[in-house]
Amino acid sequence: MHLMRPRSRTTLRLGLGAAMLTLLIGMATPPTARAQSGNDLPDIGSAADSTLSLDEEFRIGMSVVRGLREQGLIMEDPETDDYIQSLGSRIASQVPDLQRRFRFFVVRDTSINAFALPGGFIGLNQGLITATSNEAQLASVLAHEIAHVTQRHIARAVQAQGRQGIASAAALVAAILVGMATGSSDAMQAGIAIAQGTAMQQQINFTRANEYEADRIGISMLANAGFDPNAMPDFFEILGRRSGLAGIEVPEFLRTHPVTTNRIAETRDRAAQLDPKIVTQSPSYDFIRERIRVLGAEEGSDLRQYYATLSDSRTLSPAQRYGEALARSDAGDRSRAVTALRELNAAQPGSPMLQAALGEALADDGRTAEAVEVLRSGLAVAPRNVALTVRYAEVLLRIGEAKTAHALLLDLFNVVPPSPEQIRLTAVAASSAGDTGDAYYYMGEYHISSGDLAMAVKQLELALADPQISAVQRARFEARMKEVSDVLKESGKRRNRERPDGNAKLG
User: Fold this and answer.
1) CB 216 within 8 A of CB 85
2) Single pTM value for the model
């Protein structure tokens, strides 16, 4: 299996420190894509806004996500990405008059935490996902974080503290990055409070108000999406037992998600007032939780022992057997992994996730012909399934069928918005197929999706310089170049309106 291991936590922290400095220096300047759908470029937020505009929020959020991605902290996995995005979108669909597209991602961190960034970016630590007992508990966290975004809590905090321009939001980003680097939500919240220079008691009250508002709105979204609203207080209780603090030993304002008996009681009271039509839990939840457990294991670890210990006291569930098979493949025991996955596929025929895992395990075991057959058969039943398509494209690239892989990925991504990593794979397929112009074009799209328009321009220039591109390709590349260039020009005009001290003129 292609299980990407994170670097050591120390290396990641040091790297994030450098990334933080880079982001702080450039916070007011680099424009990014809002991507209301696909990879559309943004309108530039008005500098006359009295608080952060939606576009300014997006720039801040994407800058943080780009820093996390560059440090290898985001779990790049099509199965995980597809599931988390689908679950999050199900909750977000309950937001009335939705003005933004939410993006959900998993962070390689075993601590139990989740966070909302400006602009609709929601991060879930792998430790939080593996700590949940059911899908409704995971959905409750997503609902809570989505509510933070829809209520624009960070923008409201900046406004309340006397915002003087987009550059002043750099302190917020610094605090967020410090919190992510250390794995400490306490450090994050404390950094925000100190950076903005507010009175301690005011910050405590404002943070508490935000949390209770996010609970109230989130639990309604949860119920409306067909989940048991009791999952929210249930998971709060799990957090309380895990922390062992019960909100007493640590001041509440140092905790991004303070767990108190009052908060649990209030959410349970609200849940009792709701009467949702509960939908059956997705069969993917248990499998994704085990997949994340294996993918997120520290480098050099061997989770076969973890599953062996479980099997000593109980019969492993299908999801746990799936996790065990992934762990075996990761440890080089690919033959036994294939056997286990064949048995799981026989017991649950037609499962795209199991078929994708079997196809990948067969390919890793050198049995590419069998892998092609499994993946092709799976796609015949579940066309354009993200995991099956990506795994099939990877196998096709291995056996030299790059043109087929390229066409397959384009067909998928014309229908399903791709993740940055999936865009990069499309560029690799185009390059392997000998379509250099398309390869550069899709690398440009990769940088757009990551918010680096300057680098996107360089890639588009290389695409246009390819003498082999067709008239249709040239027209498409030139149109995209104009879009990106127009945004960069508008950004330059905006910078010219800034005062010498770097703060934008407001009002």
Assistant:
1) no
2) 0.81
